[in-house]
Automatic annotation (TrEMBL):
Protein's name in the database: Lipase
Taxonomy of the source species: Eukaryota, Metazoa, Ecdysozoa, Arthropoda, Hexapoda
Gene: LOC106124154
Pfam families, A to Z: Abhydro_lipase
Domain of life, source organism: Eukaryota
Active site (catalytic residues): S184 (nucleophile), D358 (charge relay system), H389 (charge relay system)
UniProt source species: Papilio xuthus (Asian swallowtail butterfly)
GO biological process: lipid catabolic process
Length: 419
């Protein structure tokens, strides 16, 4: 006889299995054509180059191959539509957060999306995608349907993905350096790169870290804590049944969210409520139309193993490498416990921009990070007391609340163009 606990776990894992399952790519193409004709906002169905083109921006698509064989898609906006002067140097690399892709920088439209706004300031803008999201699910040798492909965390993103992008951008543009803008996980993997591959850190003239992810000890988001804990519990079941991705684009969660949030009323109520619970409320910050669009691109997927790292990060008072357990740790790290990342290796000028109402990258963890880094030239706390984590990519207030500081520091560490 099965106990009530057995039955509960069976149905819970079955539901979790379905929520993490991916849909057939051919069916997704058909579904996309169907959606445009059935009430979905067009912007939610467009990819990065299509979105940029729709608003008069010219975007290029580039392929970058990492040292360990992952093929990443990155995008470039050489000149913003509203750029009237010469292009400033060096190029700027803009990196997304967890479960996100390059598209988030366009979701809120030309008046608020950072990809539009930064390129309009005459910067040669490159927008990256890390391994595992829907733009970067190819490999020179590994099959994306195998566990070997998904055997990565932020460690590999920082050690391989960002260095490969820097190499590609500097080689393609004949520039010795870049400037870096990283949001949330995008800031986290930059710090990992500096710890593990410091010579690449030295190629960055200034790093601007937006709501940075590093130590996550005091994260207030209960849903995020529950989500990572559920992955920790269910990982053996998921892996045994061949599910190695977490919340993939094209999966049931993303498709259902896209369907529900296409409606104005649902977007402004239920879908806004989900964002508020994952982070914190900020009334009148994110437009309803932006919510209708963003769920067409979010969540964009990552590895189950990455979610295990996040669960570990939420439960330690440190910023450290993946914890395999004492036995494997001893083999991998020559220590029973995983080592901490070397934040003192981030010696180049660094700017941190954070919010008081951020429930994911919270003030105590940001203060801790600032105190660990050796060359923070400014820690900017956004004046708006309600500024939160999801405001960075999606708020209509971006051009007022964070763009001036971003462009101020990009300009200080750039040449050419207008001041």
């Amino acid at each position: 006889m099965f106990s009530k606990t057995d039955v509960f776990l069976f149905y819970s894992f079955s539901l979790f299995y379905l929520l993490n399952a991916n849909l057939n790519s051919a069916n997704l193409d058909i579904a996309r054509q169907f959606k445009v004709l059935n009430g979905y906002p067009l912007d939610s169905q467009l990819n990065f180059t299509e979105l940029a083109t729709e608003y008069g921006y010219t975007a290029e698509e580039h392929m970058v191959t990492t040292e360990d064989g992952y093929i990443l898609t990155i995008f470039r906006i050489v000149r913003g539509k509203n750029c009237q002067g010469p292009i400033r140097k060096p190029p700027v690399l803009l990196m997304h957060g967890l479960f996100m892709s390059s598209d988030l920088w366009l979701d809120s439209g030309p008046g608020a999306g950072l990809a539009y706004l930064i390129s309009d300031e005459c910067y040669d803008l490159w927008v990256g995608n890390v391994r595992g999201n829907y733009y970067s699910k190819r490999h020179t040798n590994l099959n994306p349907n195998t566990i070997e492909f998904w055997n990565f965390t932020v460690q590999e993103m920082g050690s391989y993905d960002v260095p490969a992008m820097i190499d590609y951008i500097t080689n393609y543009t004949s520039s010795d350096t870049i400037n870096y803008v990283g949001y949330s996980q995008g800031a986290c993997i930059y710090l990992i790169m500096c710890s593990e591959q410091q010579r690449y850190c030295e190629k960055v003239q200034v790093a601007i870290l937006l709501a940075p992810g590093s130590r996550l000890t005091y994260t207030k988001s209960i849903p995020f804590r529950l989500l990572t804990a559920l992955y920790e519990i269910s990982a053996p079941f998921l892996i045994e049944t061949g599910i190695y991705q977490a919340l993939p684009w094209g999966g049931i969660v993303q498709q259902l969210a896209s369907y529900l949030c296409k409606d104005n009323i649902t977007a402004d109520t239920t879908c806004r409520y989900v964002l508020d619970k994952l982070d914190s409320p900020h009334p009148d910050s994110i437009e309803t139309e932006t919510i209708r669009v963003l769920y067409g691109h979010f969540p964009a997927g990552t590895s189950v193993k990455s979610m295990l790292w996040y669960n570990q990060a939420l439960n330690v008072d440190d910023f450290q490498k993946f914890d395999y357990g004492p036995v494997v740790n001893a083999e991998v790290y020559n220590s029973a416990t995983p080592p901490s990342y070397n934040l003192s290796a981030t010696t180049n000028p660094t700017v941190v921009i954070s919010g008081r109402n951020d429930f994911l990258s919270v003030p105590p963890d940001n203060e801790w990070l600032v105190n660990q880094l050796p060359n923070v030239i400014e820690h900017v706390v956004v004046e708006d007391p309600l500024w939160n984590h999801f405001d960075v990519p999606w708020s209509k207030l971006t051009s007022k609340d964070i763009l001036p500081k971003i462009t101020d520091y990009l300009y200080r560490y750039s040449k050419g163009g207008r001041g």
